[in-house]
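Q: Here's a chain of 207 amino acids. Please give me its 3D structure as tokens.
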Amino acid sequence: MKIDVQNSSGKVVESIKLDSNIFNIETKFSVVRQAVLSELSNLRQGTHSSKNRSAVRGGGKKPWKQKGRGVARAGTIRSPLWKGGGVVFGPDPHGYSKKLPKKMSKLARKSVLTQKLQDKELVVLDSINISSKKTSDFVSFMKSIDAFNKKTLILVDSFQENLILSSRNIRNVFIENIKTVSVYDLLDSEIILIDKEGINTFSKLLS
């Protein structure tokens, strides 16, 4: 399987061969779903908390005597029935982490990349190199490759200051490292931009 490689002006300069074991597999939607659920669960902090009747401050003294007042019995003003009292069965801090086997994580990425390639949402460039920090230059670059006004994920293998500074004011443009990009980020994009070196990196990571 081959894919066209474009330059920064949007012209096709060559074609490269893609690894069929990564970019041409049977899409496993169930695995993709598990990977996304795992990633979203791991983002949760789990710090939600509430105080029960023993943790609320005050209420050590019995409000009134047990009998003789003609009202309900009360042992503490911090009862859950009282305003300012404790919470019954409230949330407690706990972790939401969900582990995913490495093979399933790789398979999920392969499935998403295959689907993106089939939907023509994967664009390969000869190099991703912005010469200046101007937003206008980045907008011109995006228009030349027909990616402007689309939710775009740019995958890079190293830190690029000009790329980050020139794109930070553009809506729906996200820059991620190839080695750490999540399945959710790959899935939640209309266009994925990657260079030839990035394709080789993916081949090494997912082989």
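Q: Can you summarize the key feature?
A: The chain has two domains: 2-45+100-206, 50-90.
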